[in-house]
């Protein structure tokens, strides 16, 4: 019988995950299906239970359900526990295993696709919401020289940084005069198409500015390009977090090069 997977979110209609996983399954010869599932805002747990009852093997979880998936899981990976959120669920023998592949996807996109090592770099993470929280542990595991978490609401950055050893939190104004080698935008500014706050730090020569949002010429990336930084959007992270989820479920890591190239050209 074909193994069934879904991505659950609200909204979900524009998710690229079914297409990405269909390409992975074809390339690796896996007998599986992967569909998009819209859950009502107050109906995530019920949607998961219905899918398990129907024989589902696993699910990706996206906005706004990642924290609820974290609470629903009966067992968590270390990286999901550190992220406080779950984007990958596996169902077996009554167990709901929760994992989080977002940070691994980001790090792999940086290292493998963009050729940018995190090790030894002065890294700035902008934002202190769920997206930022989800990538801190995998970034720290790469041993950056420093990891600074900066947020419009400074208290949130300070609180987030306190829950991890090896990073510091601050408000955006405290960045004045500082220089970074890698700057990752994990705020939701780009999603809303809003203007990024004027940023007062500087980019080191050869620095990379990375926006987790994809497919948009965000104000953050425009400012970075104007400051001479190399820029990248989050499409590679999307594909790499999917590949990592595929590995969790199927035990094989699909090649992402052609999938990413196809999505880029579309
Ligand atoms: P997500 O799960 O995508 O991280 P979130 O938890 O709502 O979403 O967090 C959104 C992040 O974007 C927060 O860090 C938020 O800053 P505040 O904590 O100060 O609200 C940040 N953000 C959203 N709009 C912003 C803006 N216009 N300027 C600066 N930061 C913004």
Question: Could you please describe the fold and organization of this structure?
Answer:
The chain has 2 domains: 3-100, 3-Layer(aba) Sandwich (Rossmann fold), CATH 3.40.50; 103-236, 3-Layer(aba) Sandwich (Rossmann fold), CATH 3.40.50. Helix content is 37%, strand content 24%. The protein is built from 11 helices and 12 strands. It has helices spanning 17-28, 44-53, 66-72, 78-83, 102-113, 130-133, 136-141, 154-162, 219-226, 235-250, 257-265; strands spanning 3-9, 32-38, 58-61, 75-76, 88-92, 95-99, 122-126, 146-151, 168-171, 179-185, 202-211, 230-232. The strands form 2 sheets. It has a 6-stranded mixed β-sheet, sandwiched between helices. A 6-stranded parallel β-sheet has the order 9-8-7-10-11-12. Helix 1 (17-28) crosses helix 10. The radius of gyration is 18 Å and the shape is globular. The model has no long low-confidence stretch (mean pLDDT 96). Bound molecules: 2'-monophosphoadenosine-5'-diphosphate.
Brief rundown of the structure:
The protein has 266 residues and is α/β, with parallel strands linked by helices.
Task: Note the main attributes of this structure.
2 domains, 37% helix, alpha/beta, 266 residues, binds 2'-monophosphoadenosine-5'-diphosphate
Q: What's the β-strand tally?
A: 12
CATH level-four homologous superfamily name of the largest domain: NAD(P)-binding Rossmann-like Domain
| Main sheet characteristics | 6 strands, mixed
Count of the separate structural domains: 2
CATH class of the largest domain: Alpha Beta
Radius of gyration: 18 Å
Looking at the structure, the CATH topology of the largest domain is Rossmann fold
Question: What is the first-to-last residue Cα distance?
Answer: 32 Å
The name of the CATH architecture of the largest domain is 3-Layer(aba) Sandwich
Q: How much β-strand is present in the residues?
A: 15-25%
Please state the structural category: alpha/beta
> Averaging pLDDT over every residue, what do you get?
96
The shape, in one word, is: globular
H/E series:
EHEHEHEHEEHEHHEHEEEHEHH
| SS element count, helices | 11
Helical fraction: 25-40%
Q: Going across the biggest sheet, name each strand in turn.
A: 2-1-3-5-6-4
- What molecules are bound to this protein? 2'-monophosphoadenosine-5'-diphosphate
Report the uncertain regions: none
């Amino acid at each position: 019988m074909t193994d069934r997977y879904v991505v659950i979110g609200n909204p979900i209609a524009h998710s690229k995950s079914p297409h990405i996983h269909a390409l992975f399954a074809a390339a690796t010869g896996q007998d599986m299906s992967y569909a998009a599932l819209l859950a009502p805002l107050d109906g995530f747990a019920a949607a998961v239970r219905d899918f398990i009852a129907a024989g589902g093997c696993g699910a990706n979880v996206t906005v706004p359900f990642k924290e609820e998936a974290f609470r629903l899981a009966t067992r968590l990976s270390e990286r999901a526990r550190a992220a406080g959120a779950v984007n990958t669920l596996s169902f077996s023998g009554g167990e709901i295993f929760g994992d989080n592949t977002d940070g691994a996807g980001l790090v792999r996109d940086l290292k493998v696709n963009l050729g940018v090592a995190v090790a030894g770099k002065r890294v700035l993470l902008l934002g202190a919401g769920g997206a930022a929280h989800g990538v801190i542990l995998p970034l720290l595991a790469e041993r950056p020289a420093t990891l600074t978490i900066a947020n419009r609401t400074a208290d949130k950055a300070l609180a987030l940084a306190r829950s991890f050893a090896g990073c510091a939190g601050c408000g955006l104004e405290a960045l004045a005069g500082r220089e970074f080698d890698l700057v990752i935008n994990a705020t939701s500014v780009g999603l809303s198409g809003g203007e990024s706050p004027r940023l007062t730090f500087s980019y080191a020569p050869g620095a990379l500015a990375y926006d987790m949002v994809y497919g948009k010429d965000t104000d953050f990336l425009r400012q970075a390009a104007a400051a001479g930084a190399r820029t990248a959007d989050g499409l590679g992270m999307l594909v790499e977090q999917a590949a990592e989820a595929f590995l969790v479920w199927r035990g094989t890591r699909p090649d992402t090069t052609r999938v990413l190239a196809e999505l880029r050209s579309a």
